User: Fold this.
Amino acid sequence: MSPPVMLVDGYNIVGAWRSLQDVIANGDLAMAREQLVEILTSYSAYRGLHTTIVFDAYNSLAPAVTEEVTEYLKLHYTEYRQTADSYIEKVCAQLRRQRRIIVVTSDRAQHITTTGFGAEWMSAMVLEQDVRAAEQGIRRKQRSKSANHRRLHSVMNEEVKRKLTDWRSQLSQ
Assistant:
């Protein structure tokens, strides 16, 4: 079975998360986007989700652009006069019954529309909480790995381990 697809309304999340609101308040929307991308890159890989963050380019005359950031994360900038909502709805309609889809937005109308296509819904706040939980899991995993790497046993090859075990058993006799 294919990994779930998570479609994220980028500006909705940027506007909902306090940490990103503070970045916007300092006048740096591009930095807020970058931070969201960085956060969701780790999160998507950890959770095994194929995530697309959708940003409105409603007033931009540039054509739609999809950029693959990692195996797990893509960015999509909509085309002129297309909203993130309409793009997400279109993808939900295309993928319905083919893949598990999770739509992340706190927009009530978008929630109703996309669940009508069979997608699951997650609010911006629930995503933020799950991101924090995933970050804790990642830190625990890293601590566990680094603790194991500090032990001599973790860097020895199997033959050396076997010889040491044999010597230990001979000494105990």
